[in-house]
Amino acid sequence: MSAERILEDAREQVRKIVPPEINISSIDFEGPVVVIYTKDMEAFASGNDMIRQLAQGLRRRVAIRPDASLLTDSKTVEKRLREIIPEEAQITDIYFDDDTGEVTIEAIAPGLVIGKQGSILNEIKKEVGWAPKVVRAPPIPSKTVSETRAYLREVSSERKDFLRKIGKKLAQSKYEGEGWIRMTCLGGYREVGRSATLLSTRDSKILIDCGMDPSSSSSKPYFTAPEFQPLDQLDAVVITHAHLDHCGLLPTLFKYGYDGPVYCTPPTRDLMSLSLIDSIKVSHGESNKSEYESKHIREVVKHCITLKYGETTDIASDVRLTMQNAGHILGSAVCHFHIGDGLYNVAFTGDMKYERSWLFNATTNKFPRLETLIIESTYGGFNDIQPSRVDAATQLKGIIERAIMQRKGKIVVPVFTVGRSQEVMLVIEELMRTGKVDKVPVYLDGSIWEATAIHTAYPEYLNSQLRTQIFQMGQNPFLSDIFKRVDSSEMRENITHDPEPCIVLATSGMMNGGPVMEYVKAWASDPSQTLVFVGYQAEGTIGRKIQRGVRELNLQDKGKSITVEFRMNVEIVDGFSGHSDRRQLINYIASLDPKPERIVIGHGEEHKCLELASAIYKKFNVETRAPMNLETIRFK
């Protein structure tokens, strides 16, 4: 069926639902959304039930936008908006998009812009003509968030063309006949790193994650596999979360010609661009050539279509995607794929934490339907039982007492930009605020400060307790005066030579480059200084070598290879992990509703994948697989 015929069918459906007196000027597809332009915005402002009926009738998400003839002068509209919206909302920016007829209102308290039961928002819709969109301004200003929003405004015309193309493709009719589904393991199976899985149906190809191997600069997913080529047959990329082992090679797809959509949550888009830019900086700092340039990262951002948790959307002619909380890092998602008209359902957990943490709720475990689950096994080995979050906090308290209060030394903690750094910050802040340990400066080096700012821009993705503390009680632990941002190499140099005790949180988390190595180089031979691991160290990384007791490190220093003696005190605090341990993985499977027919194990060292697969099969009597890279499994 032609795109024009598909649009005409949509228009007929709209005419059945919308009363004839309401003027509909045009209808278009923009990605997975049907956009309806109207000269009667007021009718839709109070008729939310009509929008729901349209979404049900069209079986798509629906957006209502004003006809171009309604758009009044932006200066006049901005003045009126500031009159309607209470000062307490603390507007930080108002910007207009002529192509979509949207006015975006950025405020510290977006709830006050919306009003009780949407009263103020409805008033805005009636009075100003433009379609209002309300976003939260980060309490800590985020360069990434503001630049991403500015860039998307800058390329709005290109993006609109791209979304129209995707929308027409999604609306195409499905072929009749026998349907089938299979997955091909392109990376991250019986290993940790370079996560990539191709989900194929008779009608579509979808790539889930596109990661790099943190222990090797040259190891990529198996993109030369015949199932994956050519790139122009790939319908969509879905990113579970913003860690580089899941998204670190996404820009290379655009470098080599991919121009399709990337689906992820809004925080994942922002954190991903931050992590990717940081990756280029680390490569240059280590005198390595990056796989891509910043222009390729901009292409990633331009092609992102973001989904909130629980929002279902078409991503191919026969596949619908819903993202749910995975509990791993900000915006991390369990990705549920509904294939065909009830043909099959598959969920990928990505990295997951089935335990309420200081930042997030536990992984979602309920789905409408589920035949196959693909689950991680980072800590799925027989002896992989981690301490609780409370035990981890107690252990960290003891380390701080010994290292700083007794030895008067320093602590350096290698952390990922996103996730562990913010949890460690919360625990240290609580220990120092309550007087359980002495107050000392806590330096944040790398992109940790910026990642923390992004966390404050998306409070709806944090757990309810932390949201209440920040936004109702006015206690934002991230704004504590103990935290100091390291913003120059001179400041870093001063910290390494300062005799006073301190704590340094620095990237990268597996010590494969980044500013953490500058502190290690400076303090490596001093046994009074302490190195604390709070996250997973992959095979082949410097972090894993130190955990195994290495006494000499071969490091890069300004492009030259040097050898340093390592005598630092080493501590490991497992309870901070964003991954489920073996017990939590088993409990998660036991709690799943509904129970899947098949479970596929990935994202773990070979023996852990096999041990977890064996345990699940014995306990639940369910078909269990631990495939190798390049294996293909047919589901139906």
Give a written overview of the molecule.
The chain is α/β, with parallel strands linked by helices and 636 residues long. It has three domains: 1-172, K homology (KH) domain (GMP Synthetase, Chain A, domain 3, 2-Layer Sandwich), CATH 3.30.300.20; 173-383 and 579-634, Metallo-beta-lactamase, Chain A, CATH 3.60.15.10; 389-576, Rossmann fold. Helix content is 35%, strand content 22%. It has 21 helices and 28 strands. The longest helix has 20 residues, at 266-285. The protein is globular and about 80 Å long. The chain starts with a helix and ends with a strand. The mean pLDDT is 90.
Summarize the entry for a quick read.
The chain has 636 residues and is of the alpha/beta class. The protein is built from 21 helices and 28 strands.
